[in-house]
Amino acid sequence: MSSLQRNPSVGLTVDPAISTPRAEYEADVAELQASLQELWTRAYATTDLRERAGIQNAVGVCHVDLHLLESRYKSNLEIETRKYEERTEAVIQELCDQLVAELGPSHIRGTLRALDPEELSCYVPKVTSDKIITRNERGYYHQVPTPPWD
Q1: For residue 27, which of 60, 69, 74 has the smallest C-alpha distance?
Q2: Alpha-carbon distance 11 to 4, whole Å?
Q3: How far is residue 61's CA from residue 36's CA, in Å, rounded to a whole number?
Q4: Which residues, 6+ apart, have CB-to-CB distance to 130 below 8 Å?
Q5: Predicted local confidence at residue 150, as pLDDT
Q6: Along the chain (150 residues), what's the average pLDDT of each consecutive run of 10 residues?
Q7: In angstroms, rounded to a whole number, what is the distance separating the alpha carbons of residues 147 and 141?
Q8: How many CB atoms lie under 10 A from the CB of residue 39?
Q9: What pLDDT score was predicted for residue 72?
Q10: Which run of H or of E encompasses 134?
Q11: Nearest Cα to 111, choosing from 88, 141, 82?
Q12: Which of 135, 137, 143 is nearest to 115 (CA)?
């Protein structure tokens, strides 16, 4: 997908900014840790007792936020993973739709025509029980009625 995104001549437009639940959690943790680091730096630099007390309160809030973040991450991981998979699948489907439109029917037919019937069945709608897929004299696959089994 990334090579297609880097090639502007292909004309595909898919937003690749989908993060895993773990990556989002780690980014949020890093942000809170950076805030904590800044607060500690300010706490050591100030001599004002009132400001230091406010910083200590803010540090406490950050620690609580870190624990809440971890708790929410663990309790929602399954749901967030499912959402991530759905978003990823939607992006892949959008990319496939755009790719098919960009390549045109002749490329798609050529690719499908080259597949064996077993492979082709993965890409086309299921055939009814009274039909089989065969290749005709021109090399195209098509459905034909199965012979009667007397």
Answers
A1: 69
A2: 9
A3: 10
A4: 145, 146
A5: 43
A6: 48 71 96 96 93 95 97 96 92 85 82 80 62 64 56
A7: 18
A8: 19
A9: 97
A10: strand 131-135
A11: 141
A12: 135
Label residue 145 left, alpha or beta by phi (over 0 means left) and psi (-120 to 50 means alpha): beta
Q: Please check whether residue 97 is in contact with residue 86, taking contact to mean a CB–CB distance below 8 angstroms.
A: no
Token pair, residue 11, equals 């004309």
Residues in the chain: 150
Query: 143: which residues sit within 8 A by CB, 6+ positions away?
Result: 127, 131, 132, 133
**What is the predicted pLDDT for the residue at 136?**
67
Burial of 12 (0-12, 13-18, 19+ CB in 10 A): middle
Cα–Cα distance measured from residue 97 to residue 60, given in angstroms and rounded to the nearest whole number = 50
Over its C-alpha atoms, the chain yields an Rg (Å, rounded) of 28
Can you give the pTM of this predicted structure? 0.60
Q: Which amino acid, 97? A: D
> Tokens in use for 107?
């490329």
